[in-house]
Structure formats: structure tokens, C-alpha cells
Design brief:
Largest sheet of chain B: 5 strands, parallel
Radius of gyration of chain B: 25 Å
CATH topology of the largest domain in chain A: Rossmann fold
Largest interface: A-B, 33 and 36 residues
CATH architecture of one domain in chain B: 3-Layer(aba) Sandwich
Oligomer: heterodimer
CATH architecture of the largest domain in chain A: 3-Layer(aba) Sandwich
Helix content of chain A: 25-40%
Structural class of chain A: alpha/beta
Strand content of chain B: 15-25%
Distance between the termini of chain A: 43 Å
Number of helices of chain A: 12
Strand order of the largest sheet of chain A: 6-7-8-3-9-10
CATH topology of one domain in chain B: Rossmann fold
Low-confidence stretches of chain B: none
Distance between the termini of chain B: 67 Å
CATH class of the largest domain in chain A: Alpha Beta
Mean pLDDT of chain A: 84
Order of helices and strands of chain A: HHEEEHEEHEHHHHEHEHEEHH
Chain lengths: 287, 647
């Protein structure tokens, strides 16, 4: 009965696995800290198509920040700007006090920002273990030759990193799949591996691009629990793009709403839910 | 402490003194098997015991332990027993509502649990029974910001215990020394196929005596290994991985998680193995599925050699005479199929394996024996501390459960009910004098409720629960479990319930095995949307019909049972589930309840309808409830005339 079980749960806006203490945890005073990342006046266009127009918002330490909006609203473009995949024509991004005109992918990763992908970018032929190990790439200091003979420093490094990866495998409860090639796993579990690889970077800020797209309700519930646990356990700041309103309203601290590349709402889930612009964007009133 | 150890903590002290560095337990964590020696275990228990004492747990009080098989939970039970308290292991998959009764009945004030899931449930229980003051959890995940009063991590308890132990280091040994064999060691709540659960009190003497008797019978030594993967709240798991572990001193291995059991089993290769039939059934189902997916040459080889095993292997393991050529052929089969198969099942080192709890299908049973696994049956229950009758090596039959072992006396009531006396009998049901008096008479005979007899060789044969055996309206014998077991042997059928007592014919309700039938459907390009959809497919009904017909053909061969062939059947739209009270926590069908709950369907079966609309209330794992509805089809099966014995 498990699959059916979650349907009413999410619809009513509860993630039951968090139990009675869920609200207390997410709303615990003092948990959310200072602003870590600030996006100001970002505009991005591809030729004549304006993907983003003058977008500004901030992300605070330890919060779960959701970006929502209808299809084509510019959510993924926004994430790609933060991540350095796209370079906006106007505006700037401030990360921990440093302001950048545009970001650079490697630099972003080194600063402690990791991401997952909407359309899984895993190595299908490699095992779960190896896939997550690739997330430790930036933490490995030995060179190719040392690693090839796997002796001394290279061996120590591999053992230390493997231990970290094992902790992630334990955390995400995928022990049974450790040696399974990722391509053979169910979709929901692949998404979990994708999250695992991002966690392997020990990120301070984690960008999740539709972590629950294409999942059934049970998988969504599991993923919600993992996201909350990551946030709770490691204090990771989470920026999340998601379509499932139940999930968004349930787990996020603050929500940004985009529509046609413009910001139309920003605030707590309750504020956003009652914002007339957001309602009309979602219900499709005449613009 | 004087003389030989009488309690589990006293046994622990002995092991830690005699062989401090020997491995007591292993747990797979972070991909590596981590060993825990007896001396390390003792210091863990010592700290926990001091912590529990500091928290106010005292002699005779109850403490609940809920979780999977984890070393720290085992240590917690030992720690509780060290201070003279009585652990109450409860099922980790029980819903909060089910926990309320045992916790309030035993007036439990303390609990040690595995993780957040259990903490959440106990907080729910606490709203109904506020006496549950202190809760400690082993795994802090998701609980870092828990602010509920009295809820703390086990680490905190250990720390507090170490401080207390440092200030008063003699108390631990004094407390352990005060334990006596006649003290109650643990309280096991029986699942009970009827009515509310009952708390079975067992003394140290009873549990230790039975453990040693079982060990003597099969020559179990400290070198043996077991894998602990069934709920510790089940008396079977508790005897095999706790009582016997401490009495004998072998190694208990804890799997990494419930999902990795098959992998862990293969890695550990236990030598002593115990599981209810459904586990063996699940293994065989997965083997059957994988063989169906295998290439043609492999399938040919498998079919060929399994036929051979069926013919020769059973004789070999019984030590019966087998010709030289057959022996050679079997050796070849062992090389090609049986050996690798045993290895895949994680049973290549198994010396003694037991199944109990339910009757096992004869074909399932002989499958394991024919590939060289010494699978045997035993008879026992929670009330008898498991060991009553065991099958000696080479005297194993599918339809008996063995001979009474040391200390056990059997006799039969005039009704055919089995009565027994044994040092392992329960002390009584907790706070339930009436129920105790019902099963335990003044001369110390325990009334099992099972109907059976001793065969010519002195082996006990159980027919069915005494109250379940019935008769059809025309007087023919009706043994529902016998029919259900025959159905359940098919990999496609997970559960079955037969009706017929006092009626003119037998009808059955069938649950398909989702993975086996799902696989079968996929291979036939049969699309389905989920369990209910799959269960209602005409093709699936055809598949189940062939199974039912085979059972009927089988029944027709038996003079006494030919009259109870299945006339009509239906495939249920939902899986029978313990959460919906349809099964017990040990997955036994609750016949009476199902009869009432699905009265509409039963009426439809007997009323000759082709289809019946039904709405069923279901309880979800998080405790909510909902309704599942479906149009369930009903089909006829073929029945056969009585076959003569020669046929």
C-alpha cells in the first residue's frame, strides 16, 4: 500500500516522515543565518529572447530556498547563471561578500556550490560508488601518475575519500546498490545518486534542478526527506527548483516566483500562496 | 556471582573474561564488516547499564527496545538486564497504534529505539500513554533539532553512564550478581491471530535451558555464525541471535540494512541459519524468476540438474544408498549448479538450517534439501521458548516436525490437541491470569492449540490449528492451511485464504506475488498500471487458474481431501497486509478477520456472481487511512474426480 499511501500526504501539504516535529525544526529560530548569495538585477537574453529580466533576490545561510514558476519562466536559466553555465548580460552575483559580473563553473565549484541536473548527468555504465567518487574530484590532490600506481599518498587519499563516499551512501540509504551500474537502477534511485554526487563535494550551497521531476509520490516523499535531512544534518543551504507545489510549500523557507523571466513574488510559502500575481500566473488569468 | 552463570549479563561477564578478544558480533557499516569483541561489548553494556541506572531504571521495571538488529540495541537489552530490568522487544514495523497496548499494558517508562521513525511513533504513543518518560535513539539522523522532553541520543546515555560508572565502579558487578535464573528475563508480545496481544514472560532459566538444549541437539559451537536479520521482537530471532548467542558464544552478524540482506548473507555465509518458510519461499521465487530470464543453455542445464537433484539429492542428504553413477552425476551437478546456487543464496557454509513458524510446502522444502542444504523443521512457539521438537539429521520429512528434545514431554488431549511440558515454558502472560490459566494447567501442561499426533517413528506431525480444521456441509474434511500452503508454493501466489468450513464447497481468495507476476507480465508485453490493475487482468486469472487446477489435481489424489477441491477463486485487488490487520506481524493470515472484512467477496464467491464491487479500508504506513475500491472478478476452477492411489 506504500505507493498509494503518500498521495493524500503530499496533497495536504505535509511530509509525514518528518513527524510531528517537522514544523518545529524548519521554523526553529536562529537556524537561518546571514545572506550568503545575492543575485542583483540579472538580465539574460539569447538573441531576441529575454530569458531573465532584472531579477534580484538573496539566499540566506542554512535556508531552503525554492524557485518556482510555470514552464519557460526562466528557473533553470537562473540556476545556470548562479552556476556559471550561462553568463548574464547585466547584473551581478555576490557570493560571501565577493561580487562577480559572471560566474565560472570551476570557480563556483571550488567556492562550495554544487548542483544536480534536471536530466540526470550520471555516468550510466559506472557503479554508484564510482559515480559518487567523481564528486570528490576537487578534493583529490594527487596527480595522475601517483593515482595510476596507487601507492602512498594516492592510496591514503583514496581511502579517506572512499570513507566519505560510504557515509553518503549510508546517508542516502543506497547500500544495496553500491556496486550496481547506475544505468540499471530505477529512475528515482538515479536521482538519489545524482544528489549523492553533489553531496560528495561537501557543498555549502546546493542547487537542485527539479530533484523530483518524473518521480512517483513515494519517491517524492523520500526525496523530500533527504533534502530536509541534508539541510538539517549538514547545514547545507539549498536552492531548489520544483514544480510540485505541495513539496515546495512544505519544505521551503522562502520562495521566489518567476514568470516570463520576471520576478513576480518572493517570500514565505504563505505569502507567496496568497500573492494575487502568483495566483493569476498559475491559474492563467489574462495578462 | 556464585556458581555457573544464571542470567544473560552473567554469561556476558564469563565470555568477556574467558575470551575477551574473540568476536562477539559483527555489523556491516560503511561497506565494511566491523567486529565487536566480547570485552568491547562488555564495556558498551557497562556504560549503558550505568546510564540507565542513573536515569532511574530499576529492578523489575520494563524497558522497550525497538529497532532492527543493531549491536547497540542488543547491548541495550543486556544493559537493562544487568540492572535487573526487563526488556520488551517490539516489532519495528508496527504502527504507533499497535505499540500503545504493549507499552501501556507493561507500564513502560523507558525506551531505546533505533532511529527517527521509531521516535516519531513513540511520541505519538506518549500522547496516549504519558508514562513513557524517557526515549533514547541510536541513530541521530533527522533528530538533531529534536526538542521533546526526555528524548535523547544513546550517545548521551553512554556518556552519562561512563561518568556514573567512574564514580561508582563496583555497582555494575553488584547489580549483575543479584540476578537469578528465576527472574523474568524478557517480555515477548505474541502477535496473536486473534484478539489483543499477550505479553509472554520468560525467565532466564527457561531461555538459557532451551538454548543449551537446542545447541546440544545440533552440536552448535562458539565457532558457528548466524546472520540476524529478522525482527528481534520475534521470539525466534531473539533465541537465535540473543539467548543462544550468549549461552553458546557464537558470532552474530548484523546486516547493513534490510535491503542488503541477500548481499550480506552471501558475504558472511552463516553456518547456522533460521528463517520462517516465507523467507525460503522468497529466495526460491527470486531464483525461479532469474532462471526464467536466463539464456536457453543455462535454463536447460538448470532444469536438467534440478531434476537430478530431486531424484538423487534427497536420498544423499538422508544418507540412503545411491549408486556410483548417480553419485558422479550429482557431483557434476554440484559443480555446475548446486554449488553456485548455494553460494548465491548465501548458504554454502550452512551446517544446520531451520524453518519454523508455519508449515512449509513439501516441494519448497525438498528443493533446498536436494541441493545439499541441511534444512530441517522444528516445532515451538513464543510460549515454549521455541525449542520443543526438532528433526535430527537424516530423519527429516516434510510433513513432520521432529522428535521432542531434552526435557520435553508430550501428550495428547482426547480432542487431539497437543499438550506439552518443558523447562522452557512461559512463566505466564503478563497481567493476564485468565489467559495464563487457559493455556497452562495446574500440572504444568501447556495447551498448544495445535492438533496432531506422533507417527510410528516418534516424530510429531501437526495437522492444523485445532480450531481451524473443519468439515464441508457434506462431511468432507477441510484443512484450510493445507490447501493454502499448496497454493502458496506457486511462485505467482503470495498468499491465499481458503473458505469452506460448514459450506457446500471450497472457495479461495488469492493474492498474487507482485514481483513474480509482474515479471511474468513484462515478458508477455502485458502492460499494467499497478498492483490492482495487474491482479484484475484476464491473463493473470488464467495463470492463477492453472495453479488452482494443479492444486485440485493434487487434492484429488488424496482420499480424505478430494472433497475439498477449490471450486471458485478470485484474485484480490490489494495485498493482504499486517497494517490492515489482515496478517499478523509474523505474516500469518488472520482467517476470522478476513472472513468478516471481505464478507462481500465471500458471499459473491458462494453466490455465483461473475464480478463484485468492493470498497476496502486500508491503513497506510504513516498511520493514515483511506479506501481502495475495485471490481473484483470471480472465476471457476476445474475440479477432478477422486484419483485412485495408483494414478
Amino acid at each position: 500500500m506504500r505507493a498509494v499511501a503518500t498521495a493524500p500526504v503530499l496533497a495536504e501539504g505535509h511530509v509525514s516522515s518528518r513527524g510531528p516535529a517537522a514544523n518545529e525544526i524548519t521554523e526553529a529560530p536562529g537556524r537561518v543565518g546571514q545572506v550568503v548569495l545575492e543575485v542583483s538585477h540579472i538580465s539574460l537574453s539569447f538573441g531576441g529572447v529575454k530569458a531573465l529580466t532584472d531579477i534580484s533576490f538573496d539566499i540566506r545561510e542554512h535556508e531552503i530556498r525554492a524557485i518556482i514558476g510555470p514552464n519557460g519562466a526562466g528557473k533553470s536559466s537562473m540556476l545556470n547563471c548562479i552556476n556559471g553555465v550561462y553568463q548574464p548580460q547585466q547584473g551581478s552575483i555576490t557570493y560571501r561578500g565577493k561580487t562577480f559580473k559572471h560566474m565560472n563553473c570551476r570557480q563556483v565549484a571550488e567556492m562550495g556550490v554544487a548542483r544536480t541536473f534536471q536530466n540526470l548527468a550520471l555516468f550510466k555504465g559506472m557503479s554508484v560508488l564510482d559515480n559518487i567518487m567523481t564528486g570528490r574530484n576537487l578534493r583529490m590532490k594527487t596527480n595522475l601518475f601517483q593515482q595510476a600506481i596507487r601507492w602512498g599518498a594516492a592510496e591514503r587519499e583514496e581511502i579517506a575519500n572512499r570513507e566519505f563516499v560510504e557515509k553518503i551512501i549510508d546517508f542516502l540509504e543506497i547500500q544495496a546498490y553500491r556496486k550496481t551500474p547506475v544505468g540499471k537502477m530505477p529512475y528515482g534511485l538515479q536521482k538519489r545518486v545524482d544528489l549523492g554526487r553533489a553531496l560528495a563535494m561537501e557543498p555549502q550551497v546546493l542547487l537542485l534542478d527539479e530533484p523530483m521531476a518524473g518521480m512517483n509520490v513515494e519517491e517524492k516523499q523520500d526525496m523530500s526527506r533527504f533534502i530536509l535531512d541534508v539541510n538539517d544534518e549538514f547545514g547545507t543551504t539549498i536552492v531548489l527548483i520544483e514544480h510540485d507545489m505541495g513539496v515546495v510549500m512544505d519544505i521551503s523557507d522562502r520562495v521566489v516566483v518567476l514568470d516570463y523571466g520576471r520576478k513576480i513574488g518572493d517570500g514565505s510559502p504563505d505569502e507567496v500562496r496568497n500573492n494575487p500575481d502568483v495566483i493569476s500566473a498559475y491559474l492563467g488569468t489574462v495578462h | 556471582m556464585s556458581g555457573s552463570p544464571q542470567t544473560f549479563p552473567q554469561l556476558l561477564l564469563l565470555h568477556a573474561k574467558e575470551r575477551p578478544d574473540a568476536v562477539a558480533m559483527r555489523e556491516k557499516q560503511f561497506g565494511i564488516w566491523q567486529a565487536l569483541s566480547w570485552s568491547a561489548l562488555l564495556s558498551m553494556v557497562r556504560a549503558l547499564a550505568a546510564g540507565l541506572a542513573a536515569a532511574g531504571l530499576s529492578r523489575g521495571q520494563h524497558i522497550v527496545v525497538i529497532g532492527a538488529n543493531r549491536p547497540r540495541l542488543y547491548a541495550s537489552m543486556l544493559a537493562a538486564q544487568s540492572v535487573g530490568a526487563i526488556p520488551v522487544p517490539l516489532y519495528q514495523d508496527a504502527a504507533a497504534a499497535e505499540l500503545v497496548f504493549p507499552i501501556s499494558n507493561a507500564e513502560v517508562g523507558f525506551a531505546i529505539v533505533e532511529d527517527q521513525e521509531q521516535v516519531d511513533k513513540l511520541l505519538e504513543v506518549r500522547q496516549r500513554f504519558p508514562g513513557l518518560a524517557r526515549i533514547w535513539y541510536d541513530d541521530p539522523r533527522g533528530l538533531r533539532s529534536m526538542r521533546e522532553p526526555g528524548v535523547e541520543s544513546l550517545d548521551t546515555l553512554v556518556k552519562a553512564g561512563m561518568a556514573r560508572d567512574a564514580s561508582d565502579p563496583t555497582q555494575f558487578d553488584v547489580d549483575i550478581g543479584r540476578g537469578r535464573g528465576t527472574d523474568v528475563a524478557a517480555l515477548f508480545f505474541t502477535s496473536g491471530t486473534t484478539g489483543t496481544p499477550k505479553g509472554v514472560m520468560h525467565t532466564y532459566a527457561a531461555l538459557i535451558d532451551r538454548s543449551l538444549a537446542g545447541a546440544r541437539f545440533d552440536k552448535i559451537t562458539p565457532a558457528d555464525e548466524v546472520l540476524a536479520y529478522l525482527p528481534p521482537a520475534w521470539v525466534g530471532q531473539n533465541i537465535f541471535s540473543y539467548a543462544m548467542w550468549l549461552a553458546v558464544g557464537y558470532i552474530v552478524n548484523c546486516p547493513e540494512s534490510a535491503d542488503t540482506v541477500t548481499i550480506d548473507l552471501k558475504e558472511i555465509g552463516p553456518t547456522y541459519y533460521f528463517a520462517p518458510p516465507r523467507v525460503f519461499e522468497a529466495f526460491l521465487t527470486s531464483v525461479t524468476i532469474r532462471m526464467e530470464d536466463a539464456g536457453r543453455p543455462k535454463r536447460w542445464l538448470y532444469d536438467r540438474f534440478m531434476g537430478l537433484a530431486n531424484r538423487i539429492g534427497r536420498r544423499l542428504i538422508e544418507d540412503q544408498p545411491v549408486g556410483v553413477i548417480d553419485r558422479l552425476l550429482y557431483a557434476l551437478g554440484d559443480l555446475a549448479i548446486y554449488g553456485p546456487l548455494r553460494n548465491t543464496l548465501g548458504m554454502s557454509r550452512v551446517r544446520v538450517a531451520y524453518t519454523a513458524g508455519e508449515a512449509i510446502g513439501p516441494d519448497l522444502f525438498s528443493f533446498y534439501r536436494s541441493i545439499g542444504i541441511n534444512l530441517k523443521q522444528l516445532y515451538g512457539s513464543t510460549e515454549t521458548a521455541v525449542f520443543v521438537c526438532l528433526q535430527p539429521d537424516h530423519e527429516v520429512r516434510a510433513d513432520t516436525v521432529g522428535v521432542p528434545i531434552d526435557g520435553v514431554e508430550l501428550k495428547f488431549a482426547s480432542t487431539g490437541e497437543l499438550l506439552l511440558r518443558s523447562p522452557g515454558l512461559l512463566k505466564g502472560y503478563y497481567k493476564n491470569e485468565a489467559a495464563t490459566a487457559e493455556v497452562l494447567d495446574s500440572d504444568g501442561w501447556y495447551h498448544t492449540g495445535d492438533a496432531g499426533f506422533l507417527d510410528a517413528g516418534g516424530h510429531l506431525k501437526i495437522i492444523d490449528r485445532a480450531k481451524d480444521v473443519g468439515r464441508l456441509a457434506n462431511g468432507a474434511l477441510f484443512a484450510p492451511k493445507f490447501i493454502e500452503n499448496k497454493l502458496k508454493f506457486f511462485p505467482y501466489i503470495k498468499e491465499a485464504v481458503a473458505f469452506g468450513d460448514g459450506r457446500e464447497k471450497v472457495c479461495a481468495l488469492v493474492n498474487i506475488d507482485y514481483s513474480a507476476v509482474g515479471n511474468w507480465a513484462e515478458k508477455r508485453n502485458l502492460p499494467y498500471a499497478g498492483y490492482a490493475d495487474l491482479a484484475s487482468k484476464a491473463e493473470v486469472y488464467e495463470l492463477i487458474r492453472t495453479c488452482v487446477n494443479k492444486v485440485n489435481a493434487d487434492l484429488a489424489a488424496d482420499e480424505r481431501l478430494a472433497g475439498s477441491q477449490i471450486c471458485r477463486y478470485l484474485v484480490l485487488h490489494k495485498e493482504l497486509d499486517a497494517d490492515d490487520d489482515e496478517l499478523t506481524r509474523t505474516n500469518k493470515v488472520r482467517r476470522g478477520f478476513i472472513n468478516e472484512k471481505y464478507a462481500v467477496l465471500v458471499d459473491a464467491l458462494y453466490g455465483g456472481l461473475e464480478q463484485q464491487y468492493v470498497e476496502t479500508a486500508v491503513k497506510f504506513e504513516d498511520g493514515r487511512s483511506g479506501v481502495v475500491s475495485a471490481h473484483v472478478r470471480i472465476a471457476d476452477a476445474q475440479t477432478f474426480p477422486l484419483q485412485k492411489a495408483a494414478a
